[in-house]
Automatic annotation (TrEMBL), chains A, B:
InterPro entries named in the record: HTH_LacI, LacI/GalR-like_sensor, Lambda_DNA-bd_dom_sf, Peripla_BP_I
PROSITE patterns with a match to the protein in the record: HTH_LACI_2 (PS50932)
Alphabetized GO MF terms: DNA binding
SUPFAM superfamilies xref list: lambda repressor-like DNA-binding domains (SSF47413), Periplasmic binding protein-like I (SSF53822)
Keywords in alphabetical order: DNA-binding, Transcription, Transcription regulation
Any Pfam family matching the protein: Peripla_BP_3
Domain of life: Bacteria
Lineage: Bacteria, Bacillati, Actinomycetota, Actinomycetes, Kitasatosporales
Keyword Ribonucleoprotein part of the UniProt annotation: no
Protein known as: DNA-binding LacI/PurR family transcriptional regulator
Basic and acidic residues composition bias: residue spans: 342-353
Signal sequence bounds: none
Amino acid sequence: MSSAQRLPTMADVAERAGVSPSTVSRTLRGLPTVSPEVRARVEKAARELNFAVSRQAASLVTGKTGVVAVLVPTLNSWFMGSALSSLGPLLRAAGMELTVYVISDMSERTAFFEHLPARRNADALAVFGFDLTDEETVRLDDLGMPVIYVSQHAEGRPSVYVDDVDGACKATRHLLNLGHRRIAFAPTVGASGFCFSSRERLLGYRQALTEAGIPIDDDLVVTMSLEDRRGITQGVGKLLSLREPPTAIFAEMDELAIAIIHSLRKARIQVPERISVIGFDDHQVAEWTDLSTVAQSPSDMGRLAGELALQLIQDSDTGHTRHIVLPTHLIPRGTTAPPPVPRREGDSEDERA
Amino acid sequence: MSSAQRLPTMADVAERAGVSPSTVSRTLRGLPTVSPEVRARVEKAARELNFAVSRQAASLVTGKTGVVAVLVPTLNSWFMGSALSSLGPLLRAAGMELTVYVISDMSERTAFFEHLPARRNADALAVFGFDLTDEETVRLDDLGMPVIYVSQHAEGRPSVYVDDVDGACKATRHLLNLGHRRIAFAPTVGASGFCFSSRERLLGYRQALTEAGIPIDDDLVVTMSLEDRRGITQGVGKLLSLREPPTAIFAEMDELAIAIIHSLRKARIQVPERISVIGFDDHQVAEWTDLSTVAQSPSDMGRLAGELALQLIQDSDTGHTRHIVLPTHLIPRGTTAPPPVPRREGDSEDERA
DNA sequence: GTGAAAGCGCTAACAT
DNA sequence: ATGTTAGCGCTTTCAC
């Protein structure tokens, strides 16, 4: 079991191998200036002693910590899980550690930006999906390390994100092309004030409607919290109680779309026969539940963010202001269909409860 | 933006405040032996210089790294997301960092256990949901730090987990109590050879059947991979093509249950009228989709694991071999119901395709 | 190709 | 209550 025994140091390895500590250091870092036979001896000694280099001591002199930090609003979402599941192994392969700062409420957020615990404890920071204030962004600027913005953009700073406006546009256009004219948008809210780009998606929704010459109706935009189920039922109720209810709902994310569909079906409103529903993400469950959606790839984002981070650590000037924009794809599936009664422009009298 | 400027050291703060570095150290660590006025001066200087203590340097002398490491098979699951979302802020509040080792395939697993990168780089390690070999467990023993096993148990080592056998028993008994006699069990497989306790849940399933005097039929146990949808359709097909198909399916986890239900409904087999389905976890979507399930609380597990880790770091003897077993709860919802034709013992001739 | 020596930034005795 | 001193374990000149 674990015990407080002293761990072997480089000096121990050196002694055992009959060389100097410097040589051990050189060997273990794979520097070429070590003769093969000495290298072998050192490696053997290190293995026998179960030696591991102390990052702490090393970083004290190199100035590099060997860790990449990420700042995330939650870990409990498909998006973050996928992104970090690709980022983690990538960093590992590069010999880096991943430290995670989870900020789940406002007080944690304030504390983070006040103390900046990542300072001096990481070589780069990747900030995921926060809707940062200008002050917060500026605060990160003097963190003394490269900061990469992921699933969001910051002007003049390296960013990796999808074109949410465009993606939302695609979703909305798909509904329009099916013949829908009354299309609702359902954004969500998170606790720590973060946004998985709901703002941008709203923009795309509006843009597509405007393109199609359809007036914006703010009654059709209903925020629903994923935290409690009541919220969703109420939100859906709000839409169903409109004088002219929507024939289609565009949910900000798949999880919400699933919940909305369930709420509708419980109320015996058939999807997609009566109301179409489309999500955003292409979450795993979207496939299982045959949900139409707009796909984005968080694992690609994680990977690209990681690569960018490593690159910036090596040379903080390259790609200093680089923006990587990833594509989105419409995935039409079984929850979208033409509206119940095909309507032409102008005959909006034709109504059904 | 970020730049390579030298970060201020304690000496800088000391100079600015007109005191010695030791005093700065004492002040910043909140030791009581500092006069209020000096404390104020030091804090002011530190703030002005935007100073942050280097964990690296501190840990070099204290021997504590100030980080808790976790080893996880993936981050892309409801379970892990929930667990770490509670563990993270807890550690943060204790002034600790969280570093994450994601091991998503066999080669990464091998590499981890060979090099043990956490050695010397953390004060404690929490291992989540792996089905470790004895060798691996022993290897972790001489990591030189407390190791906490979460969502699994290791004999004689601190562990936090739910009684999966009991939970699975509850799920199975619920189906039995509804009158089901042909009950299938659907485990999943993950990539890195980890198991979210599928083994234990199988045991519980069998135990409940045995209790009820129902013979075990291995044809009713069909492993389904969540990675691809085909696998699920095929798995469901396997069950439906049995000479005597099940009237109920117990899925190892909610995600799988959802996929199975969808597969059944697509095939026009009504759930729960024709076949009942129950999951395990009480995943968020379980509520949205009205899935019967057995609840466990990964956030409780994360929290308890974190608390145990902190405690073991302080005093590696306390609770050295402590096992914390968390409860599970049956959550009956809309996907379980009595079987289509109530059957009594003996009249198993009464059959319907 | 290898060793000796000088720190990296901090904390922990020990003085005062 | 504060300052002085001596390292923590490693990397990095600089000699050889």
